Amino acid sequence: MIPEIPVYATTALQGHEEATAGIADAIAVSATGKPLVVIDWKSDVAPTAETVEHYRSQVRAYIDITDAERGLIVLATTGRVISIERAKL
Question: In this predicted structure, what is the pLDDT of residue 32?
Answer without folding.
Answer: 95
